[in-house]
Amino acid sequence: MDSEKPKRKHPRIKNYDYATIGAYFITVCTSQRRNYFWQSFVGASIARPKNPTEIKLSEYGKIVDNAINNIPKIYPNTEIDRYVIMPDHIHLILIIHGDECGRAMLAPTVMRIIQHTKGFITKQIGSSIWQKSFYDHVIRNREDYEEHVKYIYENPIKWENDY
């Protein structure tokens, strides 16, 4: 019975144009939060790196890294400001730029960019590893931006304490 299924909350801001010039904090998780992206992560605390520079990406992690770095090549009016690849998810700050007059260029939506990137990664890997949706946050001001940059920077360091 469909009425018994839980209703999924729509993660997007209603009536917001996600092709608008601005910065977006995005999180994309693997299906069932499986650990695909860190070579050194095997589920034991002794295998977790003590600092982010010790992290070695798995083959899947390298594919994700390549795909993230290709976003501005595919969508020239975008920039990946910061990102981190965690064992089972990625965080990134995506910036959509305007033209030289500050007007919005013909831009794909954040959803389109993320769907395309997930699809590209899926083709490279040979099967889907992603949760159906993703989380996004419209960055509203400098303080909000700095908070999310700090989160991206500290996430690998805090990972060790999460388990």
Describe the structure.
The protein is built from three helices and four strands. The chain has a four-stranded antiparallel beta sheet, with helices on both faces. The chain has one domain (17-162): Transposase IS200-like (Alpha-Beta Plaits). α1 crosses α2. It is globular, with a radius of gyration of 17 Å. β2 (78-85) and β3 form a beta hairpin. It starts with 21 loop residues before the first strand and ends with a helix. By secondary structure, the protein is α+β, with helices and mostly antiparallel strands. The chain has helices at residues 59-74, 110-125, 142-162, and strands at 22-29, 78-85, 89-96, 135-139.
What is the residue-averaged pLDDT?
A: 81
Give the low-pLDDT segments.
41-51
State the secondary-structure class. alpha+beta
How many structural domains?
A: 1
Described by its quaternary structure, the protein is single chain
Tell me the fraction of residues in β-strands, as a range. 15-25%
Outline: globular
Helix percentage range? 25-40%
The CATH superfamily turns out to be: Transposase IS200-like
Major β-sheet annotation: 4 strands, antiparallel
Brief synopsis:
This protein is α+β, with helices and mostly antiparallel strands and 163 residues long.
Please give a handful of descriptors for the protein shown.
Alpha-Beta Plaits, 163 residues, 4 strands, globular, alpha+beta, four-stranded antiparallel beta sheet
Set out the fold topology.
Layout: E1 22-29, H1 59-74, E2 78-85, E3 89-96, H2 110-125, E4 135-139, H3 142-162
Antiparallel strand pairs: 1-3, 1-4, 2-3
Helix pairs in contact: 1-2
